[in-house]
Amino acid sequence: MNTRKQEDSKNQRTIVNSFYRAIKSFGTTLPMLLGVILLLGLFRVFVTSEMISSVFTGELLRDTVIGSLIGSISAGNSIVSYIIGGELLKEQVSLFAVTAFIVAWVTVGVLQFPAEAAILGKRFATARNILGFILAIVVSIATVTTVTLMAIP
Questions:
Q1: How many whole angstroms separate alpha carbon 143 and alpha carbon 90?
Q2: In whole angstroms, what is the distance from residue 75 CA to residue 134 CA?
Q3: What are the tens digits of pLDDT across the range 95-124?
Q4: Rounded distance, CA 9 to CA 150, Å?
Q5: Domain residue spans in the chain?
Q6: I need a surface site. Which of 50, 74, 83, 101 has the fewest CB within 10 A?
Q7: Nearest of 100, 103, 99, 93 to residue 55 by alpha carbon
C-alpha cells in the first residue's frame, strides 16, 4: 500500500512539473506571437489587397514560384508561416502559392546560408537550398492537387 502512495505522489509531481513546463513554454512563445500579430497589423496597413493581387496573378506556376521565393527569403518560426499563410489565403492568394511559401519557409534558408555554408560547406549548403527550393514547388503542386482530387465527391 505504501508503494502505491509513493507512485501516486510521484505521478502528481510529474503532472505538476509538466504543467509548469507547459506554462513556461507558453510564456516564451507569447511574445513571438504578439510580435507576429503586430507585424500582421502593419502588413495589412502598408500592403494593400491590390498590391498582393498584382504579385499573385492566379497563374499556377508563377504564383507557386513567387510563393517559394518569398518563403525562401523569409526567416522565422514555422508557426509564424502558418499565420502569414492564413492571412494570404484571406487575401485570395492561391493555395499553391501559400503551400509553396510555407514549405520553402521551413526548408530553404537564404538568410541562414552563410552560417550553414561555414559549418557544413558551401557546396552542401548551396545544393540543399536549391533542392529545397525546387522541391518546395513540386511538393506544393503535388499536395494541392492531391487535396483537390480528394475533395471531389
A1: 20
A2: 18
A3: 999 999 999 999 998 888 888 889 989 999
A4: 49
A5: 1-46, 48-153
A6: 50
A7: 93
